[in-house]
Amino acid sequence: MGDLTGRTIVVTGASSGIGLAASVEMARRGAHVVLVGRNPDRLTAAAAAVQEATGGKTPPAYRADFARLDDVHVLVDQLRQRYQMIDVLANNAGGVVRGHAVTPDGFEETIQSNHLAGFLLSNLLREQLRNGRIINTASGAHAMGAVDPDDLRGEHRSGLWRRYGSAKQANILFAAEAARRWPDIMSAAYHPGWVRSRFGAGIGVSWASQITPFAKTPQQGADTLVWLAATPTVQLTSGGYYVKRKLAQPTAATRDPRLAARLWEASLSAVGLG
Question: What pTM did the predictor assign?
Answer without folding.
Answer: 0.92
